[in-house]
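Can you make up a polypeptide sequence alongside its tokenized fold?
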Amino acid sequence: MKILYGVQGTGNGHISRACAMAEAFRKYQDIEITWLLSGREKARGCGDIQNFLWREGITFVVKAGKINVVETLMNFNFSSFRQDVNELDLKPYDLIISDFEPVISHAAKKQNLPVVGIGHQYAFNYDIPTKGANFISKSIMQRFAPVTLGVGLHWHHFGYPILPPIIDLVIPAIMPPVIQNKVLVYLPFESPAKIRELFSGMDNFEFYIYHPELKDTDEGNLHCRAISRTSFKDDLISSRHVITNGGFELISECLQIGKSILVKPLMGQMEQLSNAHALDKLGYAKILNKLEFNAIFNWLSQDNEIIQLSYPDVASKLAEWIAGGCQAGVETLAEELWQEPYLQDQRLAS
């Protein structure tokens, strides 16, 4: 079976899911996967996936923690995008999969071919908790990367055939001790200068700050780090607190291993606002709409309740489903995965 698998590169969560799926597919020798990445510079890569096709795709412009719609539209090269869609030949492939990747999705639509969507965004096909939705945001969500069969992922099923998250995290057999005053900060859409200024006055805590514009430096209690999958995962496991935007994948990993989570969603981005709303309803994280010293310091100083959810191995189940020709309905997949006996909502002692 030959598969073309598209990955939206704007957020690292899509790439994390792709890496987890790539690992799950390794046991199927008769499956040949061609990966296609768009939405980020080719030089930034696709995580552990070394060989991939690249297209420019669509990238959102973010300034000061908010999507800049005007600049996003101004930077969008429609002519190049249309050419990529028109020239992508899908005939050599037996199955087309899109993780919210628009070039593959629109090429499949143009060629009247079925495409399976696997990703968090496809959970929004159902009546799940949302916030910040309007006609424009709903239209973008529906038309950005259209598919014929959507397999949505979320932290809870909300009564619909939605699957648990795909977790791209290797948990050590012996977990290292959690450092109580260690805080992992991942706010890639915020100003690095603002982040450093904000946390420099909280001397009781050690902040490990990952950002695309930073290099590895240590300045007192601020430990700035360039983006690195390996060191990021190590620091995540040993941190007690995580401060992040409203992206889906990192929060999923935090819930899997049990972290105290503070979420500042990206303003103007319906998905992140809805993620924060869902976390608030579920009681899984504290939400801030603005990064403020007092609010963050008070949250760090409190004896916060920590949630741990033992999600099943969704990537392996999906790989098995795909290898079998996607025969079972998504409803059957969801029912099997959510009924796993070890899926527990544990309120951990601090």
